[in-house]
Write a structure and sequence with these properties.
Layout (H helix, E strand, L loop, with lengths): L5 H32 L36 H5 L1 E2 L2 E2 L9 H14 L1 H4 L8 H4 L11 H4 L3 H10 L13 H19 L23
Antiparallel strand pairs: 1-2
Helix pairs in contact: 3-8, 7-8
Length: 208
């Protein structure tokens, strides 16, 4: 048997170190992987033996506000200034806002209130309690916040629409209701002369 040279011995030592290092790395990585698999956690809605109420799903900390839902503009979100109803639009009234309000009004309001807002919508004509006309003096003079809060909290036989209609759309509908009220009580002199022939055409909801 030939004698082992120094170079061969050093190569064998390096090989042994490499193998040992590789094995250590495998064991370390395997240990980390196992730790990740065994981390303490709750599967959603699973019962908990740690919390007194037995629920793993924890309620939000009181006062928690979702991002973008701070709602600091109290008149915009409540229709109130202090304890009084808002009587000035908290958002600019534009043509686009009125178009949006008319669209939402036709979906959510017209079935009972009618397209004209006179309370003779199809649902009311089929026997449901007739809502008041938006053209009664009481509602014609009502502050804007009144309509916003009726949509938010309901009134009489009308349920609330807070879940169906966003605050922005509620104000759009309020703007359109005001436009409806103005349209039904405006003098002819308010109508541009070129548009006056249109006054003789059937109104929305009327048969031609």
């Amino acid at each position: 048997m030939a004698p082992v040279t120094i170079v061969q011995r050093q190569a064998a030592v390096r090989a042994a170190w490499l193998v040992a290092s590789a094995l250590v790395s495998v064991f370390v990585l395997a240990g980390c992987r196992q730790d990740m698999h065994n981390q303490p956690k709750y599967i959603p809605l699973r019962e908990s033996g740690f919390f007194a109420d037995g629920r793993s799903e924890r309620p939000l900390v009181p006062g928690t506000v979702p991002r973008g839902e701070l709602r600091e503009d109290t008149p915009y979100y409540t229709g109130l200034v202090g304890d009084k109803l808002v009587d000035a639009f908290p958002t600019p009234v534009t043509k686009d806002l009125l178009k949006r309000g008319r669209e939402r009004f036709d979906i959510y309001c017209a079935p009972c209130h009618s397209a004209l807002g006179d309370g003779f919508g199809m649902v009311a004509r089929r026997g449901y309690l007739r809502p008041p006309s938006f053209h009664d003096d009481r509602l014609r003079n009502a502050p804007l916040g009144h309509f916003y809060r009726v949509m938010t909290y309901g009134s009489g036989a009308m349920p609330d629409y807070a879940q169906q209609i966003s605050p922005a759309d509620r104000w759009a509908i309020v703007a359109y209701i005001r436009a409806l009220q103005l349209s039904q009580a405006a003098p002819v002199s308010d109508v541009p002369e070129k548009d006056r022939p249109l006054l003789n055409q059937p109104q929305r909801g009327e048969k031609k």
